[in-house]
Amino acid sequence: MPSQESQESQKKKIYKIGTRGSLLALTQCNQVRVELERLTGDSFELDVIKTQGDLITNAPLWQLDGKDFFTKELDEALLTGRVDLVVHSYKDLGSVRPLGITLAAVTKRTFAHDILLIKKSTIEAIRDKNEFIIGTSSPRRMVNLEAGLKPFLPNASEDLRVTTKVLRGNVNTRIEKLINDDYDAIVLALPGIERLALTESSRLELAKLLDGLSFMVLPQSVFPSSASQGALGIECLDSRTDNGELWAKLRKMQDENTALEVQRERVAFNKYGGGCHLAVGINVKKIQDYFLHNHHGILENEKVEFSLLEGRELPQLRPSPRVFTGHFPDDQLVLKKEVSADLSGKNHLYVTSKHCMHALKKAPESLWAAGIKSMKDLVNKGFWVNGTADSLGDEEIHLLRSSKAIGLMIDTNATLFVLSNTEATTTLGEVIPCYRREVNTSLTDEFKNKINETEVFYWSSYPQYQMYLEYFPQIKNRYHASGLGKTFNQFKQHNIKTIPFAGMEEFKKWTKI
Question: What residues act catalytically?
Answer without folding.
Answer: 91-92, 140-141, 168, 174, 276
